[in-house]
Amino acid sequence: MPGSPVDSLRLVGHVFSVSGSQANIRLTGPVRSELPDDRRITVGKFLAMRTLRSSVVGVVTDVDTGQKPAGEAGIPLTARVDLLGELKEGKGGSVRFQRGITDYPVIGDEVDLLGSDDLRRIYDTASADTINIGQLQQDSSIGARIKIDDMLGKHFALFGSTGVGKSSGVAVILRQVLEMRPDLRIFLIDPHNEYGHSFRDRAQVLNPKNLKLPFWLFNFEETVDVFFRGRPGLEEEVEILSQVIPQAKNMFANARNGEVQHSLRKLDSSTTGYTVDTPVPYRLSDLVSLIDERMGKLENRSTTTRYGRLAARIEMVRKDPRYAFMFDNANVGGDTMVEVIGQLFRLPANGRPMTVMQLAGFPAEVVDSVVSVLGRMAFEFGLWSDGAVPLLFACEEAHRYAPGDKAIGFGPTRKAISRIAKEGRKYRVFLAVVTQRPAELDSTIISQCSTIFAMRMANERDQNIIRSAVSDAAAGLLAFVPSLGTREVFAFGEGVALPTRLRFSELAAEYIPRSESVSSGKIDTASVDATLIERVVERWRGATMGNRHRLGTTTQDHGTPTPETGSTTPLEAERSLLRAAAPSIASGKAPPVTPARQDSDLRARLLRK
Fold this sequence. Notes:
609 residues; six-stranded antiparallel β-barrel; elongated; Rossmann fold; Thrombin, subunit H
């Protein structure tokens, strides 16, 4: 049609019906398999319906033979097209694409197969606010560009089954974001320790060995979750904690200011000025002392038991070497909140504006609390700094920490992530969620993500969740999701000009995410012997033992382990201990009971009660 701003290959048909979001096309030209790929009409192809003032762009979602039988001229075909937007001629004769339909086609309007030049007008919008994450599936010569401000500012999600290249896609997106936004900080939750080497040149990697996250930064719900090992807290003990924690905080503050508290009894939680959630330091020794003093004032044994049991819980967690990141040297240097925030969120960046938080290795029962603390601190730092530093909080396996079923998971973790989703953009705290099971993720969080990357998924529930999150005009494209190839993805929403089928860029081998907790080396199973098993057992036991209690070692006051007997290994030392105890065991005599063992037995009896 004269004056139409379309670079078409040729006429392919005419419009014969139109609805609010779809049009049906009667194809007039031959559609044969021997035609070149750029001239074949099939699902996924883009068509342009030429109107008087614009060209309406749509994507073919279905091709059918219609109701009529085949005639001499060939089989009559019809195509159903989802309407996506318009190409309009602007001032100066330039053609630009806009989403939405303002000028609908009418019956009889001619339809063209969209050419490469028009695809470039729609997709190849290289500018300072876009990143290139791959290539279009329709034309690999055209880059798949994402509007970074729209993607970040309104949150984004990436969904896909295991093995489809989801982790590589995350790495591609985040590496491009780091290049384009050097002022942005990225905090990535990494449950399987697979991103450390992928970002080793741009990120610090935190894990249980080098993380310092003082216990007093945990709010009350998170603290209860830690002390009760991920189980619901007993009401009586939780009430005691709610009273003594503010008092312990006040005691520490007074000691730091040089004030002496002559009597614990004079402390009243209602007058300390601190709440159970105030992030200020306190000592566990003060906490236990307050509990013991309260227990000493009681005469009813059934009542004192709950105090002793609570003190035992606190001591057991404190002595568990797996919790060393919370309790070891937690108060060294006094109030270290500024240093902790600086380390977590890379302030200053020092060339590494990203943090990869590796969770494999943390006690399973405390992982939810750790994620809750980190998510809450990310939001509150943005809140109280008035968004001074933009921060992207990226959460892999998000369905584990913010499940849709309120009966499972840890409530404060879901609340922390949901709060970022709902309010974070006001304070420049952005959210990226990654999961293989969107049907199990809190639907409120999905609804807040304005850009969605959908990779191959076969589960119908997962597809329905995504279908409910995208616009009606793009919903028909979800039929392609189960058949997507590896690294292929459909992108929907604010970050893309149109719903886009693309292939993520291929990463160099050294940047491909892979789990660091699984050895890549191969072992000949025929050569496995007791030596290997001994090493495995030693590592196994060592994961739940501290340096101060390794078999065959003692620790000096400064904390450095020294061998008791020359170069004896821990395994050999254990054997020596067993040999030494053998005569007593054989004669029926128990080994001598040490004060430490008496204390341990007492704690165990209290916990059983």
